[in-house]
Amino acid sequence: MISYLRGTLAAFEEDKIIIDVGGVGYGVYVSGQTMDRLPSVGNEVKIHTYLNVKEDAMQLYGFLSRDDLGMFRLLIGVNGIGPKGGLGVLSALSPDDLRFAVLAGDVKAICAAPGIGKKTAEKLILELRDKMKLEDALDHIASEPEGVIQPGTHGRVQSEAIQALVALGYGNTEALRAVKMVEEVESMEVEDVLKQALKNMSL
To answer: Which region among 11-20, 26-35, 156-165 has the lowest average model confidence (pLDDT)?
Structure first.
């Protein structure tokens, strides 16, 4: 099995990239979000991969992080969602957004993914909800450099602000996004973050 590829990004195609590894070009299907985060052609990349073997083809699906790959594996474990469907979901939603959409039962957010209808979205939520916990999602975000919750005191402040918004009746997904938009959180109290997040809700 090919666990990852490290090489030179040789080309972008419509739904995949070509990675040159020691003179061999590997075609790897990637999500739209992964495509947007990749460097320009000629730069070195490391892509975590999933090899899908079919009767008539072997296809590589690639991700920039092990978390992205792990979420992809969860998605294709849902009956009715294949590799291309899983990639479509991760094109519409980041792993963090998907976690909160599942936990919030946000069918509409998941239906934003191409080819995912209401019934499939409901099935996805039903099958994945038990595999995800709000605390785990917040803990994961705490370890991500670009995530919502950062280590330290302001991480606690952001977490409490999200929980307060949820208690007010907002969904986990929209609470996460609203708090994510608040800047200079390290110098703010929970009440200040909450006020700014509520303003963001009306934007």
So the answer is: 156-165
Asked whether 37 and 63 are in contact (CB, 8 A), the reply is no
Residue 94 DSSP symbol: -
Cα 92–Cα 96–Cα 98 angle in degrees, nearest 5: 50
CA pair distance 125, 105, nearest whole angstrom: 6
- The residue among 123, 78, 103, 100 whose CA lies nearest residue 177 is 100
pLDDT tops 80 at residue 2: yes
d(CA 8, CA 6): 7
Record the pTM: 0.69
pLDDT above 50 for 144: no
Q: What is the rounded distance in angstroms from the CA atom of residue 12 to the CA atom of residue 38?
A: 10
Find out whether 38 and 5 touch, Cβ atoms under 8 Å.
Answer: no
Q: Name the average pLDDT for the chain.
A: 83
Task: Tell me which long-range contacts 113-117 makes (C-beta under 8 A, separation of at least 24).
Answer: 113/85, 113/88, 113/89, 114/88, 115/84, 115/85, 115/88, 116/81, 116/85, 116/88, 116/89
Residue with tokens 């083809």: 57
Contact criterion met (CB below 8 Å) for 141 and 172: no
DSSP letters along 34-53, please? HHHHS--TTSEEEEEEEEEE
Predicted pLDDT at 73: 94
Structure-token match 């739209």, residue found: 32
